[in-house]
Write a structure and sequence with these properties.
Elements (H helix, E strand, L loop, with lengths): L1 H18 L3 H5 L3 H42 L12 H19 L4 H14 L4 H13 L3 H14 L4 H13 L3 H14 L4 H13 L3 H14 L4 H13 L3 H14 L4 H16 L1
Organism: Paramecium pentaurelia
Keywords: Repeat, TPR repeat
InterPro entries: TPR_rpt (IPR019734), Ycf3/AcsC/BcsC/TPR_MFPF (IPR051685)
Length: 278
């Protein structure tokens, strides 16, 4: 199932990358590329209808096979396996060990190994599922992070951390509209979650929806004026609108919280250079 999931995300990601372009991306194409894009898009439409039918039939066949297996093996008649309290406690113990590696030590690879051990004892330990997804995201393995966030959401569909993790991973994959959808789902659970507000704002900015992006990031800073990610996000939104002096204010506020953040330092230098060139 994991392999199928990974292939599905590769398929969807590839389709979005090739057939979905923003207005700005389209304008940047030359006439030959524009004609090619239109031709490919028209061809994809006919391809889409044919293969959608095949995919739906394949899914139905797979579901029918599972139902038959459930019946043949009489799995609905006897639940002979129960997770023992010992297994539950061991899973929780390992999760806490992995969480420390994740949060305090930034040792994401080792944390994932510990979460995998935790999930052997309790495959539905939602915190281990979420934290494995979060660790994968921090390692830049965004497709894998989405897979594990989805597994956590199967256990707890309203887990704000997992919803945010999926939204943030989708944003990093350039799937900004999808990221906004999942950030909104996280905000339905916790309207004051600054990380989800920041992800939504950044996605709106990358869609060139600057007014909406600023409105959302203002909400986050009203909740927590010292939220590091929201401070640099507002700075970036101001910078891309050529408001360099205003952007500097927020980059400097962010650097007061985290002076060693190189990305923010680089953006501050860009603003200073732009101001000096005027």
């Amino acid at each position: 199932m994991d392999m199928a999931y990974q292939q599905f995300y590769l398929l969807i990601g590839g389709i979005r990358s090739k057939y979905q372009k923003s207005k700005q991306q389209f304008i940047n194409l030359d006439s030959k590329q524009m004609n090619s894009f239109f031709a490919q898009s028209i061809k994809f439409k006919s391809f889409e209808q044919t293969n959608l039918i095949l995919i739906k039939q394949s899914i139905q066949d797979f579901q029918d096979s599972i139902v038959k297996l459930l019946s043949d093996l009489k799995l609905t008649e006897l639940n002979y396996y129960q997770i023992s309290n010992l297994d539950i406690n061991k899973s929780e113990e390992l999760y806490k060990k992995g969480y420390k590696l994740y949060l305090d030590d930034d040792n994401y690879k080792e944390a994932i190994k510990i979460f995998d051990q935790s999930l052997i004892f309790n495959p539905k330990h939602s915190l281990s599922l979420w934290c494995k997804a979060a660790s994968l995201r921090m390692l830049g393995q965004y497709n894998e992070a989405i897979i594990w966030a989805d597994k956590a959401l199967q256990v707890d569909p309203k887990d704000c951390n997992s919803l945010f993790c999926k939204a943030a991973s989708l944003r990093m994959l350039g799937q900004y509209n999808e990221a906004i959808i999942w950030a909104d789902k996280a905000l339905q659970v916790d309207p004051k979650d600054c990380s989800s507000l920041c992800t939504k704002s950044n996605s709106l900015r990358q869609l060139k929806m600057f007014k909406q992006s600023m409105e959302v990031i203002e909400q986050s800073l009203q909740i927590n004026p010292n939220h590091f990610d929201s401070l640099w996000a507002k700075g970036k939104c101001l910078q891309v609108q050529n408001q360099y002096q205003e952007a500097l204010i927020f980059y400097e506020k962010a650097l007061m919280i985290n002076p060693n953040n190189q990305w923010t330092r680089d953006r501050k230098d860009e603003c200073l250079k732009a101001i000096n060139q005027k």
